[in-house]
Amino acid sequence: MQLVLSGNWLVKKGFYEAEIEDIKLYNSLDSIKEIPPLSFAVFSYHLATHTLELNIKESELPPVLIAKIKKFKKLAPKPKKTKLILKGKSLNDDEFKAGVLKIRSLIEDGTVYQINLTNRFDFELCGDPVSLFFNFYKNQPVPYGFFLDTGSFFVISGSMELFLEKTGNKLISKPIKGTSKYLKFLQNSEKDKAENLMITDMMRNDIGRIAHIGSIKVPELFKITKYRTLYQMHSTVEGQTDKSMIEIIKQTFPPASVTGAPKRKTVEMIDTLEPHNREYYCGCAGLIKNETDFTLSILIRTAIGSKNALSYYAGCGIVWDSDPESELNELHLKVKAFYEK
């Protein structure tokens, strides 16, 4: 078992390796009776079957994983060279563009307003997965990077998206919508702003279910952050709550930015549009610091694998005026930091 976190999780720089005491697996949120005060948790996208009461493709991986942590130690990584050989995609380029057109048709019919369409890229890994994580992070440093190896499977996340962070009674979320190689394009994109606003409103509604009345605020709207290979737009939603992490997740999961609007219908449509199983991708993972405080990232830019086989996932938010070719280019841009020929 191995867990490596980028320093931002601990408000530090560099990388830190956890000394894991134990890993527990759970079939549902209701089966979790106690969470260790210092632990790292991974929640599968497929918990949507419980939180939204829907039948979607089943996952072979445990819905919830919680690693009890004794302590962290600073790590000086010495990654070896790795190579990825693309073996296939869940959707080829034409199929992905056809999916965009199908979603536009669903929007035109009034079935949905926006859907996050994703793709799975399957690879053969030449090298070791922890080195792949460090090389991935070097290509694109992010706040919520981590590597988890359970012995049976591993998860590599290069996420920059904060799902939920609770400190005391303060709860914040920073949904991302809007991606481009060019700053000026994103600053002037009404399409991306409209999409971002839609998801921000969804998070206001989700957090509003468990927040104190009158405590919801949006201190940031359409903020753009630069990363090594792209620019991304996020907004910030805040609220006050005394609810537990499990109670909060039940009311906000799965994350709005990786599903769409309205959430329940989009998750249902996603299951018909995507031939692949999302597994942990588009779920969430993060550090539980004590009885009240935690930080959970959305599992975007995420790979899941076993031995020398792995799958990397990426997706795009589709709205009525989405252009299939532009969305495909955005998809490839999101894969670029992980896999460059």
TrEMBL record:
**Pfam families, from UniProt?**
Chorismate_bind
Segments forming domain Chorismate-utilising enzyme C-terminal: 93-334
What's an example GO BP annotation here? L-tryptophan biosynthetic process
Note the InterPro entries from the entry. Answer: ADC_synthase, Anth_synth_I-like, Chorismate_C
**GO molecular function term, any single one:** 4-amino-4-deoxychorismate synthase activity
**Under what name is this protein listed?**
Anthranilate synthase component I family protein
User: What species is this protein from?
Assistant: Thermodesulfovibrio autotrophicus
